[in-house]
Amino acid sequence: MDSATLTRQLVSLGLNEREAKLYYSLLQVDEAAPSDLHRMSGVPRTKVYETLERLTSAGYCFERIEGRKRYYRAVPPKEVHEELQRRWDAERQGRTDLARKVFDQLHQLTEHYQYHRKGIDFIEVIRNKAQISHRYVTMVSETKSEIHAFVRPPFASVDPDEADKQNAAELASIERGVHHHSIYMVDPEWWDFMERDLHELGSRGEEARLIDELPLKMFVFDRSKTLIALPSIPGASGTDFSMIAVQDPAFANAFVILFDVFWEKAKTPQQWFDEHRD
What we know:
By secondary structure, the protein is of the alpha+beta class. Helices cover 56% and strands 18% of the residues. The strands form two sheets. A seven-stranded mixed β-sheet has the order 3-9-8-7-4-5-6, sandwiched between helices. α3 crosses α4 (45-58) and α6 (129-142) runs parallel beside α7.
């Protein structure tokens, strides 16, 4: 391997360029004076002495004084490597111990703030349509027992791929025993979009009813998590809207009570179609 490559590699291990050149030069001789090392390495004469002092302090070379002259000899590479390895191991262990201490303290601090802020931290506002769709799929996938839903516009996405992901998550939840209770608001503009879910989920076991008007779009998961979209939010027209995710059982149960009120007013699909048949 050429000297330039070895010098660069020494630099990558922590030496500066002058130190690397001088150590490499020392390895080629038994012993050398600073003036000799200046000629061999190309390190400026004015920088040789201070650089050799650093190499000596760092354990890369030995210094011998004879009268007013100084001579330097390289510490064998194997010994340098072993010493560096000890330093690196000690440094790594020190960093590991410090990190454990610091992050334990940060964890305790986080728990402290979460305890004192938990009254507001359970509320999350989601404005990005893709994130809304992803969050809905995640919450459906995590549901263990039941879902109560007000199904009405606005919708996060009518993109076929996103709709398929939502539909797949809903069907998978039904297959693992989650009970779906849904009230669909009959909106002529969106009916084709909603009807697919009504028929497909209904055929798998969803309990569904239809109604002329719902106050909001809502999903309650296991009576503990709620995802709602308020049509009255400014700018909430079409598919441009925000949803609020709330993780709180009392809040969720309040919306289940609201759901029950509209459930009593709503019609089964058969009743609805019988009443509205031409």
